[in-house]
Amino acid sequence: MNLSGFTKGLHFLSGFITTPNKNLYSIREDFFETKTKDKTLKVKIINAKNKSDKKLPGVLLLHGMNKMGIDDPRILNLAYIISSLGYTTILPEVQEVTELKIGAETLDAVSLTVETILDRSDLFLDERLGFFSVSFCGGMGMISITNPEISKRIKAIATIGSYSNFETTIPHVLDNFEIDNYGTCIFFYNFIDHFEKNSENLKIYFYEAAMDNGLKRIGNLAKAPEILKNLSKKEVILLKGIENGKEFRKSLFEEFQKKSKSLMEYLSPINYVEKIFSSVSLVHGKGDIVIPEKETIELASRLNQYNKPFEMEITKLLSHGDTLPIWKQVPGVPGLASTFGYFFSNI
Questions:
Q1: Is the pTM above the cut of 0.90?
Q2: 3-state secondary structure 23-61
Q3: Which of 185, 193, 261, 324 registers the highest number of CB atoms within 10 A of its CB?
Q4: CATH at residue 126
């Protein structure tokens, strides 16, 4: 990586010292028709105002798995910071992601989203487009980018706090239910029918519990407690077992593991590394309680095995993928600047 890339990495990190001044950016909301023509894509396009009259390299920024989607203030702040470096930031909203869905439907939706943006050559300069995402969406995005229609058209990939192996990530998520129930609720929302048939009310409960967490709905605003009243006695017993028993959650996952091996392999980015043709920048918070850093370390090892170009930084400056850098330890800054700079220098 050249000095220019490292400087961009430092500039990127410096953007988190203060809240970006929104008055310095132009933001346009649009709806794009996808090639399937059966859905439209809501998109925000963000530029620094002093560069809004120029055609610039682009960064496709995929929002996290939450209902706010592209209106999430955290992802918008990240978009402003990327745009300040001289990029057009393209922020599409993926409905399946905002609905917390995990599976083929979501992977296909992300692929269609990336293809739709790639086909809009008016948005960015000379096919120079990078992909940036956080947490679980970083992993799903990486899988989607291996689609043959996409893989050689994305110049660089960056993920923060992502996962690599579904089979090893979920036990960690379930084990930390008492600390943060968000990931556990999403898992059971998607897969409760693997454990209990005719459990639609329980499925709704886990969805609303995840939403209560993500949207910080508490007290009278919380919706999951109301759904609880509609659960059958059998559903309540299962729910209490999940909420109160670490070993019970472990046993349920072991049951899921035996029956769903192919599904877990399908949902694991580590199995798609051979099909990646972009440079990859991997950043992960040390001690991440949501997705462990070993997920990124193992993905880096697999990238190295296949001689794929990448940089990785495991840092104490982050906690999880949607919690962005804070300047606590100056010695950790150069490594982060180098890894993010590697992403920007390859677009």
A1: yes
A2: HHEEEEEEEEECCCCCCEEEEEEEEEHHHCCCCCCEEEE
A3: 185
A4: 3.40.50.1820
